[in-house]
Amino acid sequence: MGNSALKAHLETAQKTGVFQLTGKGLLEFPEDLQRLTSNLRTIDLSDNKIETLPQIMGAFSLLKNLNLNHNKLSALPAELCKLKKLETLHLNNNRLTRLPADFGQLSALKTLSLSGNQFRTVPVQLCSLRHLNVVDLSKNKIQSVPDEVAGLQAIELNLNQNQISQISVQISHCPRLKVLRLEENCLELSMLPDSILSDSQISLLAVEGNLFEIRNLRDLNGYDKYMERFTATRKKFV
């Protein structure tokens, strides 16, 4: 991309607060964005080839939306955790295996997409995020859901297309969890905690494509209670 084209993008971004440069084969985060740390509310650098993010990331004090889908990121800098206004973070289809230790400091975060990465477990840092609504961890390599998940505040958790064979009963204690997606995993019916059905807030449980027939869900304790929640929620949306 020529300098004049980048300059035009920067000038537009200065006025609008939005910088969008997708599918341009960028190998690194544009250095010139440093000049706009106090302007930008949205950065979209999806569909590039960026491998690392600079420490300057932490200086975008007004940033609300960051889209880095389809890049080559294998790690995130600790500085990213300073983005106190960040509400939406899209990191689908990268090479991430973990989140920074201080990720829980992203106190405004509402939507987090981490589909198509290399996570082997549900990151416990997510449980510190009080305003988190939607977490997408589909298409990773997660094998189990740990006890710590009880602290998760999300309304929807997507774990489709992983390798999950074990789920902690603690998932039933998630205070706001309404939608749990577990399609195409490695779950036996006996590994699905009854309490998800009998004693949780979950009103949509998607478990197609596991190691049991969906109709056998009816045999589990609490199925009737689950169906009451499911039906009540459906009525709201009709």
TrEMBL record:
- List UniProt keywords, sorted A-Z: Leucine-rich repeat, Repeat
Q: What is this protein called?
A: Leucine-rich repeat-containing protein 57
Task: Quote the SMART domains the UniProt record gives.
Answer: LRR_BAC, LRR_TYP
Asked if the record carries the keyword Repeat, the reply is yes
Q: Which InterPro entries match?
A: Leu-rich_rpt (IPR001611), Leu-rich_rpt_typical-subtyp (IPR003591), LRR_dom_sf (IPR032675), LRR_domain-containing (IPR050216)
Q: Does the keyword Oxidoreductase apply?
A: no
Record-level GO cellular component terms = cytoplasm
Q: Name one Pfam family in it.
A: LRR_8
